[in-house]
């Protein structure tokens, strides 16, 4: 099962990429061309980082000829929470893909605990990061096995604790066969919010120093949203977290907010500091608040 973890985690990403790219067959081929290109260097270290201090230093990245990220630099001290925001297409998800080394940066350096991620094996790198993606991949298996997939060697006790912290216990108890209920492709379908909480439970079980949360673009009902946010708070406690946010209300408590615009950092600072700066972030904040009031 452990050997399956990385490829399956990876496939989830590739699946979403391909689905998004299907409208453009050329883009799909360029993606398939690029994916296997990442290789571990012969001297790569297999030691998984434990502190979770994360830094993006002068990152530049192009998809084919198109420049996507331009000289992006920011860091997250161990245990802190940084949110990345910006318009659709600004390059937020690309940052996550570079962190996972689904692609390599064209220039610049991404480091974890001071080590260039290219100096780590991909296995060691991915063992140090848990991701709660926009779209959780569920396997055609029981809910129990779907959560255990976060850490296949976990005890029953640890699994139940993770489920409790992820606000999923009542949901699982309400299922027809409880823990043995089949979910996924041919089983019971879970809502977007329930699936994200399955991901959070997996992330809690995996207990990595770094947690990445890719917030879903479409908003959930506010009860579901609150259940996710409180579960995430628990999961992120004592971990470094990188949040790609679409709804600014979910990240006002971040230690730092990085505002991306057309692949560059337009601003960075706390919610309060950015509001008083009255720039790009303050404008996004006003727009979202107006939308909330009119809906
Ligand atoms: P959103 O908020 O809509 O999720 P984002 O800020 O996460 O957007 P990215 O997904 O990082 O944006 O995309 C940045 C740019 O890169 C976009 O213009 C997108 O069309 C382009 N892009 C993304 N994936 C690929 C790919 N595999 N090949 C070519 N271009 C891509």
UniProtKB/TrEMBL annotation:
<feature type="domain" description="ABC transporter">
    <location>
        <begin position="54"/>
        <end position="287"/>
    </location>
</feature>
<protein>
    <submittedName>
        <fullName>Metal ABC transporter permease</fullName>
    </submittedName>
</protein>
<feature type="transmembrane region" description="Helical">
    <location>
        <begin position="1"/>
        <end position="15"/>
    </location>
</feature>
